[in-house]
Amino acid sequence: MLRYHARDQTFAYPQCKMTATVYHVSFNPFCCRRAVLQGVYYETRRSTTTDELGRSQGSGYLLVIPQAAGRRVPPDNDPGIEGCYVLQPGDRVVAGVGPEVATREDWSALLPNRYDVVTVSWVEQKYRGGLPCHVEAGT
């Protein structure tokens, strides 16, 4: 029996129950845009690879931000309002609610030994039915 699936159904994200803070910085002049996003999925994992010289360990993460949690905008088009965020490679993400960053010293203190922080390596906007449904980022 064939089942009918409506195309206009919204995507369900049952695992997206976490909070993450996204930081986008520009350095000349220094400005840091902080966005606390609720209803996201954040996963860190350790990976071990073996090469010719021995063992090497690394860590990776995956961040999934549903469109309902916030709208991703380009840095030059950032309205600076709640519900919008900028996320590009080189930005930082903190699991949970991260601290305010007002100066370069605060930015350089945002390190993994003090916070659960990672630096974004890649960002991909995902689509469903031609409409944006979520953003994935990771290392």
Question: Care to describe what's here?
Answer:
The chain has 139 residues and is mainly beta. Helix content is 4%, strand content 51%. It is built from one helix and nine strands. The strands form two sheets. It has a seven-stranded antiparallel β-sheet, with no helix packed on it. Strands 4-5 form a two-stranded parallel sheet. A hairpin with a 2-residue loop joins β2 (30-51) and β3. Residues 1-9 have low confidence and may be disordered.
Sequence stretches where pLDDT stays below 50 over 5 or more residues: 1-9
What's the number of helices?
A: 1
Rounded Rg: 17 Å
Indicate the mean pLDDT: 81
Q: How far apart, in Å, are the first and last alpha carbons?
A: 42 Å
Helical content stands at under 10%
Main pleated-sheet profile? 7 strands, antiparallel
H/E topology pattern: EEEEEEHEEE
Spatial order of strands in the largest sheet: 7-6-1-2-3-9-8
Number of strands: 9
Which structural class is indicated by helix and strand composition?
mainly beta
Strand content: over 45%
Global outline: globular
Q: Layout of SSEs?
A:
Layout: E1 18-27, E2 30-51, E3 54-66, E4 71-72, E5 84-85, E6 92-95, H1 104-108, E7 117-119, E8 122-128, E9 131-138
Parallel strand pairs: 4-5
Antiparallel strand pairs: 1-2, 1-6, 2-3, 3-9, 6-7, 8-9
Short recap of the structure:
4% of the residues lie in helices and 51% in strands.
Defining key terms:
139 residues, mainly beta, seven-stranded antiparallel beta sheet, 9 strands, 4% helix
